[in-house]
């Protein structure tokens, strides 16, 4: 089985690859060889370890999005400045490789001068969402470790803003003093709603609201499930408060992991916004496929 082309999403922690044909995905593979654990000369071997069984005699295009194009990655793909389309064939950077059966291209991320911001990987998901819904105008939110809000108009990313929400949740729940009351994976919707409401009504009190979780765990028997959910509500709440110019009165599409997107959708619903949810992998593949078609037409 030789694919027409190979899609690659190279994150900080994981590497995911798909063998693609006219009918879509023919095969897929993953590894934990993310950008964060590789030196520059280890990227090609890590990729080949997954895709070698798919290769035949012909040269197969490999289209990569994500952190492989970062300054610390395999080969730097310089950022494109907004406003611009999320992806463009002209922005692809070809990577020198030793393997003669592949031609590797990396998609660049996007940058914004004021306020200073960058994205790498999310632009491909945005392009995929636009490929799936070409008439979309409005706002796309991509929750994750670093949550992104992007204003989309006429097929272009006009502006965007990043929030450290996911990373703050991980640090606070796993490394701060709050970790002592947040063991396990439980959840409580009512506690999430309470945290969300508290943060939206008084975002200036976030420092005190966070320590309340520690104090209530010590003297009021706040359960780990309720503590984790309330922490999530507090952090998403201050994000929504700051991102209000993006979502207020807008059509919002959420792209990401289902559970996290459901939390954001629940939060937005309290503000009168009904968001559409799209799976991250589906959008990534659709975005990479749009580049594959552009490569075909210029070959």
CATH architecture level-2 label of the largest domain: 2-Layer Sandwich
CATH topological fold name of the largest domain: Nucleotidyltransferase, domain 5
Q: Give the CATH H-level superfamily of the largest domain.
A: 2-keto-3-deoxy-galactonokinase, C-terminal domain
Count helical runs: 9
Q: What's the end-to-end separation, in Å?
A: 22 Å
Structural class: alpha/beta
Helix content, binned percent: 25-40%
Unreliable residue runs: none
CATH class of the largest domain: Alpha Beta
> SSE order, as H and E?
EEEHEEEEEEHEEEHHHHHEHEH
Strand order of the largest sheet: 3-2-1-4-7-6
User: What form results from the Cα inertia axes?
Assistant: globular
Q: How many domains, in number, for the residues? A: 2
User: Mean pLDDT across all residues, rounded?
Assistant: 96
Q: Strand count, sense and closure of the main sheet? A: 6 strands, mixed
Beta-strand content bin: 15-25%
Radius of gyration: 21 Å
What distinguishing features does this structure have?
Nucleotidyltransferase, domain 5; 299 residues; 9 helices; 5-stranded mixed beta sheet; 6-stranded mixed beta sheet; single chain; globular
What does this structure look like?
The chain has 299 residues and is of the alpha/beta class. It folds into two domains: 5-120, 2-keto-3-deoxy-galactonokinase, substrate binding domain (Nucleotidyltransferase, domain 5); 162-279, Nucleotidyltransferase, domain 5. Helix content is 37%, strand content 24%. The strands form three sheets. Strands 3-2-1-4-7-6 form a six-stranded mixed sheet, sandwiched between helices. It has a five-stranded mixed sheet with strand order 12-11-10-13-14, sandwiched between helices. Strand 10 (138-142) and strand 11 form a beta hairpin. Helix 2 crosses helix 9, helix 3 packs antiparallel against helix 6 and helix 5 (206-219) runs antiparallel to helix 6. The mean pLDDT is 96.
